[in-house]
Amino acid sequence: MRIGQGIDVHAFKTGGTLVLGGVIIPYPRGLEAHSDGDVVLHALCDALLGAAGLGDIGQHFPSSDPTWRDIDSRVLLRSTIAMVIEEGCRLVNADITVVAQEPHLRPFIGAMRGYISDDLQVNADQVNIKATTTERLGFAGRGEGIAAFAVVLLED
Ligand code: MG
Questions:
Q1: Which of 74, 77, 83, 131 is most buried (most C-beta within 10 Å)?
Q2: What protein residues have CB closer than 5 angstroms to ion ligand 1?
Q3: What distance in Å separates the CA atoms of residue 34 and residue 13, rounded to the nearest whole number?
Q4: Ligand 1 centroid vs 73 CA: distance in angstroms?
C-alpha cells in the first residue's frame, strides 16, 4: 500500500468561471490560475503523484509551458492516473476535502464524484468528497480563495 497527500489553493479573481472537481459551479468569480484553477483536481493529482513516488503536478505540467494554459484539469487528472497505472499502482480510494466559505458546494458533490471516478476509471464509492467552511476564519473564510486537500491510497 502507498499513501499520498496533495494540497492546492487558488485565489478568486474578478469574473471568470469557477470549476471544481470538473464541475462548472454557478458563481460570479472564478479562480486565478494558469489552468482552469480546479483546486480539487490539482490536490488529487498531487496526492496520486505523491503516493506513486512521481514527484508533483508542477514538475509534470509546468505553468511555464503554454501547453497547459487554460487547460481542463480533467486532462491533467487522466494523464496523472495513466502515469500512476504505468508505475504498476491501482487506486484503492481517494478522500478529498474542499474548503470554501462560499458557494455552497453540497449540491455539486455528486457530479464531481462522477467525473473524478470516470477519469480515474474506478467506482464512485472509491472517491469521497467533502466540503467545509472555516467558520469565516482565514483566507477561505474571508472568501479570498478556495483550498483543497486530498489523500489517496494506492495498491502496488
Ligand atoms: Mg493549482
A1: 77
A2: 8, 42
A3: 12
A4: 9
The rounded Å distance from CA 41 to ligand 1 centre is 8
Domain boundaries 2-155, CATH class = alpha beta
Q: What is the structure's pLDDT at 29?
A: 97
Write the pLDDT tens digit of every residue in 31-73. Answer: 999 889 999 999 999 999 999 999 999 999 998 888 888 899 9
**Residue 150: what pLDDT?**
98
The answer to whether the Cα torsion of 50, 56, 60, 66 is positive or negative is: positive
Ligand 1 mean position to 148 CA, how many Å?
Answer: 9
- Give residue 129 CA to ligand 1 midpoint distance, Å: 17
Phi-psi region of 116 (alpha: psi -120 to 50; beta: other; left: phi over 0): alpha
Q: Which of 131, 120, 111 is nearest to 92 (CA)?
A: 120
Cell of 81: 492516473
Give residue 143 CA to ligand 1 midpoint distance, Å.
17
